[in-house]
Specification:
The chain is of the alpha+beta class. The protein has helices at residues 48-67, 87-97; strands at residues 5-7, 22-25, 28-34, 74-81, 104-109, 119-126.
């Protein structure tokens, strides 16, 4: 079994439970879901689904950077939406961050997210 490495950065919100921001193992990095918490204030950003999606992707980018990866190396994401009514607005912001060769993705509507967020995204990325 290959060694696994815990990835942590102060540039993304600290885990709010018994989990790591990410785990790197076998040339991959597995990022836990991020909601739109500002790491400095620990508060959910205001401004609706677009602002939340931007903050979520910024948080993921910072975790990926700490692991030695980046959004450009993301292979798969899962997007959790409080309402599918926000799909188009989330998708527009998401598309700005994954303009070329976007990763595989699943998007699901959920009953509730931590901190009553509108969106949460997790991802799997290559390290090399």
């Amino acid at each position: 079994m290959q060694a696994r490495r815990i990835v942590s950065t102060p540039d993304a919100p600290a885990a709010i439970g018994p989990y790591s921001q990410a785990i790197a193992c076998g040339g991959l990095v597995f990022c836990s879901g991020q909601v739109a918490l500002d790491p400095a204030t620990k508060e959910l950003v205001q401004g609706g689904i677009e602002a939340e999606t931007r903050q979520v992707l910024k948080n993921l980018a910072n975790v990926l950077a700490a692991s030695g990866s980046s959004l450009a190396r993301v292979l798969k994401t899962t997007v959790y939406l409080k309402s599918m009514g926000d799909f188009a607005a989330m998708n527009a912001v998401y598309g700005q961050h994954f303009a070329s060769a976007p990763p595989a993705r699943a998007t699901v509507e959920v009953a509730r997210l931590p901190k009553d967020a509108l969106v949460e995204i997790d991802c799997l990325a290559a390290l090399e």
